[in-house]
């Protein structure tokens, strides 16, 4: 099996001021192998080349949580949800990297969730759960609404849709991290209106360059400062059909 680039230690350090332990490196390697295996039956990801996998799945997942990697966590053991996790990104690399967090991996596709259940067992990841469902329904469920410190969401939809999926799930003061490729000023303006309706604010938007292919990426950080009105998230399909 192709080795997943242990020589990247220096790049981790330079770009994220963090390095995986031997155990974390082994977990990343095993994750890569399991995804390649899973890809034979499920259409999990088109990113299978080791360098591309390292950059687009591992590094990118962790770039979004730089504020957590600094070790100044508040609370010390945060509860996270990864909305539309697919093959487990960014949630699984985040769980490997921040072992004291509790994470819920949510996706509407049962086959992907069954695959993730096996990954959690294989990688011996504790305090990690999977959940089959639609973000629109989970956001109205008393067990999940207002339950999380941090919501992660990558490649699930337009930014305002991501805001409508994530903000209802957050506790007051919680943080939503929206992973994006390109970003424009117009998107900021549109998102501002949506976020206000949902009881949040745009805390920051970070632009960065990926370390191997030098692509531009963005992370949008939303802070929940108020209460999300009960009508959000709207019924299944409405956030995408009629974005705020
Ligand atoms: C393009 S994939 C992205 C997967 C992963 N986040 C990543 O970045 O590699 C989008 C995923 O979101 C899930 N999804 C889309 N809409 C959803 C919703 N409303 N609720 C839950 N999952 C959803 C899909 O099933 C799919 O697995």
TrEMBL record:
Keywords tagged on the record: Cytoplasm, Methyltransferase, rRNA processing, S-adenosyl-L-methionine, Transferase
Domain of life, per lineage: Bacteria
E.C. designation(s): 2.1.1.-
Class of enzymatic activity (EC top level): transferase
Subcellular location per the Swiss-Prot or TrEMBL entry: Cytoplasm
Coiled-coil residue spans: none
Keyword Phosphoprotein on entry: no
Role this protein plays: Specifically methylates the N7 position of a guanine in 16S rRNA.
NCBIfam families, sorted: rsmG_gidB (TIGR00138)
Similarity comment: Belongs to the methyltransferase superfamily. RNA methyltransferase RsmG family.
UniProt name for this protein: Ribosomal RNA small subunit methyltransferase G
Organism whose genome encodes this protein: Nostoc linckia FACHB-391
